[in-house]
Design goal:
- The protein has helices spanning about 20-30, 40-65, 75-80, 85-115, 120-140.
- It is mainly α.
- Helix 2 (about 40-65) packs across helix 3 and helix 3 packs antiparallel against helix 4.
Length: about 140
């Protein structure tokens, strides 16, 4: 059993990124006629993990210097700057802004459900009725 399974910190060997996701990202970036070898993909994953480790360690130091216990997005941006990755900060800030907007939009959707005045069971019943109507329309169209 690994340390991660027993509640301890995962070892460096346990840290990785999903290979399928990385493969998909690489394929999207490369021209169609170019492929990426598996060992190249694995090297990219190792580099990404090391980069994340470097940035998070630096952000943790910044966090500790500020007597904070939680790494905030601002700590990540400061870490990028400290480590010489200033050119990344503009895009990181843009992604952060988009993420915050998505979170607000999600909260609005949750609030809409709460504010509609129907219980979860009533909403589920309405959904089932709509599915039944849709199935009936589909069957009718097939005949």
């Amino acid at each position: 059993m690994s340390d991660h399974e027993t509640g301890g910190m995962p070892s460096d060997e346990d840290l990785s990124l999903p290979k399928a996701t990385v493969t998909k990202m690489i394929a999207e970036l490369l021209p169609n006629e170019v492929t990426c070898a598996k060992d190249t993909r694995d090297l990219i994953i190792e580099c990404c993990v090391e980069f994340i480790h470097l940035i998070s360690s630096e952000a943790n130091e910044i966090c500790e210097q500020e007597s904070k216990k939680t790494i905030a997005p601002e700590h990540i941006i400061s870490a990028l700057k400290r480590l010489g990755f200033e050119s990344f900060t503009e895009e990181v800030e843009s992604v952060l802004k988009d993420h915050k907007q998505q979170q607000k939009d999600r909260e609005r959707k949750v609030n809409k459900m709460v504010e509609c005045g129907l219980s979860e069971a009533e909403l589920l019943a309405q959904q089932e009725a709509l599915f039944a109507q849709s199935r009936e329309k589909f069957r009718t169209a097939q005949q």
